[in-house]
UniProtKB/TrEMBL annotation:
Domain of life: Bacteria
Localization: Cell membrane; Bacterial flagellum basal body
This protein's GO CC annotations: bacterial-type flagellum basal body; plasma membrane
Annotated protein name in UniProt: Flagellar biosynthetic protein FliP
Keywords: Bacterial flagellum, Bacterial flagellum biogenesis, Bacterial flagellum protein export, Cell membrane, Cell projection, Cilium, Flagellum, Membrane, Protein transport, Signal, Transmembrane, Transmembrane helix, Transport
GO biological process, one term: bacterial-type flagellum organization
PANTHER family: FLAGELLAR BIOSYNTHETIC PROTEIN FLIP
Main localization of the protein described in the UniProt heading: membrane
Residue ranges of the TM segments: 57-86, 98-117, 197-223, 235-256
Membrane-topology annotation of the record: Multi-pass membrane protein
Function of the protein: Plays a role in the flagellum-specific transport system.
């Protein structure tokens, strides 16, 4: 019963297909050529460019991937990890708050990446906005400054690791590294560098915690939390050495050393 009902429903579809298919085959291909381009359009210099709907689709897709690109392809990862480790080393889990750390990390990221963004604008966006290059060429030219920045911060051992895992042949040079190898290698290198800087930041504050805990133990004040006593000393040390200028300046310089 069910099979008969299904066959009855499929008869109009089959009839429509048999009637329309010959009509579609009879249409001349030249008629399609006279229609406006949906995928691409001709530029004044003879090159092919993506049409406006396709460009809009690519732009919206890029906006959805923007948070991931900010985390994976810029200096934001190293900066935000170091700032979080600094807050833990000070023993103040809520000061500065997360919003302040994120804002500081974003603005410092824009400061560090400003030369890269300027080069992307001058080499890719500006010629594309003047219709001198296609969108594909603009994407290729815009990826080069970001690629060079990532290569400078990536360790060769991390590149070799992911190249070996991907089973790719030996690379001719840094320019031949594919993005699927460069992205995870760059993130791994950034995590290593961030934890190394965080270890350096932790040492002076850990010494203060050990000294305060030893003094409290010697005085028999075992019920007093050492963190409560050591916090003012850590804050005073951080302020006296101008810790914010030292840390943020060192973070910014670490990307160009």
């Amino acid at each position: 019963m069910r099979s008969a009902f299904t066959a009855a429903r499929q008869r109009p579809v089959r009839l429509f297909t048999r009637l329309c298919l010959p009509l579609l085959l009879l249409i001349s291909p030249a008629a399609f050529a006279q229609l406006p381009g949906i995928i691409s359009q001709q530029l004044s210099n003879g090159a092919q460019n993506w049409s406006l709907p396709i460009q809009t689709l690519v732009f919206i897709t890029t906006l959805t991937l923007l948070p991931a690109m900010l985390l994976m392809c810029t200096s934001f990862t190293r900066i935000i990890i170091v700032l979080g480790l600094l807050r833990n080393a000070l023993g103040t889990p809520s000061a500065p708050p997360n919003q302040v750390l994120l804002g500081l990390g974003l603005f410092l990221t824009f400061f560090v990446m400003a030369p890269v963004f300027d080069k992307i604008y001058s080499d890719a966006y500006q010629p594309f906005s003047e219709n001198k290059i296609t969108m594909q060429d603009a994407m290729d030219k815009g990826a080069q400054p970001l690629r060079q920045f990532m290569l400078r911060q990536t360790r060769e051992s991390d590149l070799a690791l992911y190249a070996r895992l991907a089973n790719i042949p030996p690379l001719a040079g840094p320019e031949a590294v594919p993005m699927r190898i460069l992205l995870p290698a760059y993130v791994t290198s950034e995590l290593k560098t961030a934890f190394q800087i965080g270890f350096t930041v932790f040492i002076p504050f850990m010494i203060i915690d050990l000294v305060v805990a030893s003094v409290l133990m010697a005085l028999g004040m075992m019920m007093v939390p050492p963190a409560t006593i050591s916090l003012p000393f850590k804050l005073m040390l951080f302020v006296l050495v101008d810790g914010w200028q030292l840390l943020l300046g060192s973070l910014a310089q670490s990307f160009y050393s």
